[in-house]
């Protein structure tokens, strides 16, 4: 049970906590985005429960950022997904807003009341109905194609779980499989039919898909945007570059080679420890405005159980 995890979160000066809380809120909430209340309706469960692995992983902003960038790199390696993302999204014109909306969508999927998450996903599916066309090579694509949705869902599960394992805390094989399985309710709402439900199924999907993954200048344009966009507060921008490099390093070795992402794009050895320390620190700092804490309040739980040390 979540309430049995001990000890308590990391104690920090209140002024520091407020600063971190404000920075995290600025990172997540777009000024003109939807107003989501994670505390309501009182008592309504989310798509998955608070004892899940997902609730622990997604509350960590370091793992969320690294995993999200890793997922996008994997998506952009698939030419049909890449064309849809690059031609129909506002990423190039408004990268910060797009990133904040994507992060908020992930939070709603994991922590919001089921009715809120279902309504958001239904809206995404409707909008995706207009996303269709052909790649530069002439291959047809549709954003609601179940095969492409399987890949998008898989890249998210891989990116977030690998980032957490590498830079926060190792997940056991059982926890990894549980994390993949927990994505099923949301994946099915999006229209995915065969998203991987375990690490072994993810490995099988990589093997089945690897022949169709390819390099593209768009991947390097994406990394350049991520490095230049003022997503973080000024004092944390050097850390952001490390996190982007960490995301590159989190992609499978064979795929980095295929995409032309050499060692100069990955995380330097000296910086890996700093990223890990940031990830472990973030895992123990309870930010009261975070969706994780707000969701606990909706369910009548204490604020802090997700921020307690495990094992």
Count of individual beta strands: 2
Largest sheet: 2 strands, antiparallel
The fraction of residues in strands falls at: under 5%
Task: State the share of residues found in helices, binned by percent.
Answer: 55-70%
Q: Strand order across the biggest sheet? A: 1-2
Cα separation of the termini: 13 Å
Overall residue-averaged pLDDT value: 88
Structural class: mainly alpha
Task: List the total number of helices.
Answer: 15
Domains counted in the coordinates: how many?
A: 1
Radius of gyration: 19 Å
Outline, from the CA principal axes?
A: globular
Low-pLDDT residue intervals, each spanning 5 or more residues: 1-8
Instruction: Sketch the topology as an H/E string, one letter per element.
Output: HHHHHHEEHHHHHHHHH
């Amino acid at each position: 049970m979540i309430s049995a995890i001990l000890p308590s979160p990391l104690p920090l000066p209140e002024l520091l906590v407020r600063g971190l809380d404000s920075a995290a809120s600025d990172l997540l909430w777009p000024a003109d985005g939807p107003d989501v209340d994670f505390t309501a309706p009182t008592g309504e469960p989310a798509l998955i429960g608070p004892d899940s692995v997902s609730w622990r992983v997604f509350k960590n902003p370091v793992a969320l950022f690294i995993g999200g960038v890793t997922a996008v790199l994997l998506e952009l390696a698939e030419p049909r997904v890449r064309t849809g993302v690059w031609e129909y999204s506002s990423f190039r014109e408004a990268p910060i807003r797009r990133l904040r909306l994507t992060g908020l969508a992930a939070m709603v999927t994991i922590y919001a009341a089921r009715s809120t998450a279902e309504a958001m996903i239904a809206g995404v599916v409707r909008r995706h109905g207009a996303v269709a066309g052909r790649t530069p090579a002439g291959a047809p694509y549709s954003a609601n194609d179940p095969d492409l949705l399987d890949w998008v869902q898989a890249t998210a599960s891989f990116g977030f779980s690998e980032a957490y394992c590498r830079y926060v805390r190792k997940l056991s094989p059982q926890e990894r499989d549980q994390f993949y399985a927990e994505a099923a309710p949301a994946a099915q709402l999006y229209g995915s039919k065969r998203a991987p439900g375990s690490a072994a199924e993810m490995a099988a999907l990589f093997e089945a898909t690897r022949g169709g993954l390819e390099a593209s200048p768009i991947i390097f344009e994406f990394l350049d945007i991520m490095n230049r966009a003022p997503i973080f507060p000024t004092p944390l921008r050097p850390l952001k570059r490390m996190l982007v490099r960490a995301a590159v390093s989190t992609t499978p070795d064979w795929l980095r080679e295929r995409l032309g992402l050499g060692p100069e794009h990955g995380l330097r050895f000296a910086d890996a420890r700093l990223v890990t320390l940031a990830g472990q620190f973030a895992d123990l700092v309870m930010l009261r405005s975070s969706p994780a804490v707000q969701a606990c309040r909706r369910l009548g739980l204490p604020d802090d159980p997700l921020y307690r040390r495990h094992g």
